[in-house]
Each structure stands twice: as structure tokens, then as C-alpha cells.
Amino acid sequence: xxxxxxxxxxxxxxxxxxxxxxxxxxxxxxxxxxxxxxxxxxxxxxxxxxxxxxxxxxxxxxxxxxxxxxxxxxxxxxxxxxxxxxxxxxxxxxxxxxxxxxxxxxxxxxxxxxxxxxxxxxxxxxxxxx
Amino acid sequence: xxxxxxxxxxxxxxxxxxxxxxxxxxxxxxxxxxxxxxxxxxxxxxxxxxxxxxxxxxxxxxxxxxxxxxxxxxxxxxxxxxxxxxxxxxxxxxxxxxxxxxxxxxxxxxxxxxxxxxxxxxxxxxxxxxxxxxxxxxxxxxxxxxxxx
Lengths: 130, 149
Hints:
By secondary structure, chain A is α/β, with parallel strands linked by helices.
């Protein structure tokens, strides 16, 4: 089954880069939606069901940390896995993100294969997916 | 905490450009010629100490950076249109690499949002703690500057 994803980042260049990595990583991808901050992401999620959210941390309006907290507190969204795709951060910040509900952290820059491995691990898919 | 040196900045700049955009740069001691327009951005950070990083790229390097990040050709109009955003984003990645290498991963650190600058020349000031000047494979300059508070 094709995976629908939401890419959340305030940089349009990064959103395109992540979309490109998604396209190259060899997974069967359905629709890829975009949002420029956490608040816009919540609006997209109210309109579209997705299998996975890839979100940056540092964003204006609503950052990735608050997005994860809001999703975790929402019964409709708490099951949607969030992978934080961000610049290198402290161990303490990674632990905090995982504590509040993010499923994984992927440091930029990343290889498409690393994204694929993480997605398969989180969604519990076998090697034969995609 | 390691020492903030031009070598540290050169190493971070080179590895981030290589890993993020398949661009290879070499350290340079020659005075830079910037041309009529540059792409530039600043990024504030806070940790044990605060400061600012500033990245300046000659126009052709910024366009090549955007093209490589987006997977387009250098002569694609999208590459030049996204040059400023690409420089801001690469500075964001450089900032993350800098704070985790300089302060370590055990202490909390926080990056601000990159601010694109409208500039025709790099604006090195008296507060500049250290800087790294490199050149792309086409010989165009890239300057990374660090101001510690």
C-alpha cells in the first residue's frame, strides 16, 4: 500500500529536498503534502489522513516540538508517527522529543536510504515493501 | 568544548556542503572577489555561550548550491530563485553541526531561525571571532564567519 506523508518545514528548499529524498528512497509513496509550520501541519492533518509526518523543529508560528505535543494530545492524531528531520541537536533535546511522542529523529543531512530504513522500522514493514 | 578556529569552521563548512549538496570546497587565503551580488544569511545560537554565524556565498556558488539541493540544473531559473533560501537552509545545517561540535551534545543548545540578508558584499565586523574562506571547484568564494557574544 502506498504511503501518504506530510512534510513540515519552513524552508521551501528543504521541503523540496525531503520530497526528493522520499522519491529516491524506494518506498511506494502515495500523496505527499506540505506545511510551512506546525499550525499549518495541523490544518493539513485535519483535511488529510497520512501515514507519516516528517517535521523540522525550528519553525516560526508553531515549532516541531509543539506540533508533536499537540498531535500526542489529540486522539485522532496520536497514532500518526512523527519523524523529526532536523539539524544536529543535543542528546537532551532528542530525549525530550521522544518523551513527548516523536517516534524518531533523523539528522540533516541524511541519505534517502536512512529515511527508508527509519520509515520501515517505524511502520513495521518488511524488507520486501516498496 | 573545542576551540573556535578557522580550521573548525572550514571543516564544518566543507563537510556540510559535501554531504548536503555534493559540493567540494578548498580553503583559500586569497582575497575574495564577490561580484555584484552575493547570497548571505545569519543564524543566532544559544548554548553555554551565545553568538551568530554568518554565511556569504558568491552568486554562482549559491545557484549551484540551490540546484544541487533541489536536483535541478544550474541554468534552471528555479535554482537562482531559490539561492537565498538554499543559503539560509545550509546555514541552518552548519549551525547545528557547529553547536554540537563546539559545545558538545551533552549541553542544551538552541538555534534561531536563519535570516536571509540583502547584501552586495560580506560585512565582516570587529566582533568577528573567526572566519573561514573557501572556494568552490569553480573558484568562487564562500565565507563563514563566527561572532561570539
